[in-house]
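Weekly puzzle thread! Below is a chain. First person to post its structure in token form gets bragging rights.
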Amino acid sequence: MAYNCSECGCKPVLTSGERIYPNRPELFIKKFYLCKCGAYVGCHNGTYNALGSPAGFELRKLRMAVHALFDPLWKRKMTFGFTKKDARSRGYAWLAKEMGIELKKCHVSQFNLSQCRQALKILNNLKRTKS
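Winning reply:
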């Protein structure tokens, strides 16, 4: 399953890690979806299910930055007895509310550039208030 490209809206095609990372033999067997604009996304291990929507360099970088701030928040809930699923769900519900978007549209792997910037602002503000 592949999502339309976050960069240009086109439908990506399935390819191998060898095409995406020609100098990384350890990634050759991994599956990716690659768009004609050059954006790409990996697949869940052993499947053809995309990890999100294809993204170019800047968007991938911003999504990683969001995950770096967001993931520790929901993972911390697991230390209070929440299951991973519940902790993550509550984290996304909170982020969706803060961003003013529907919960079903709130997932870092689907965010565009402006949504990533908005999430980073929210998460950085939260970090500052807790410091």
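Puzzle host: Confirmed. Bonus trivia for everyone else. The chain is about 45% helix and 10% strand.
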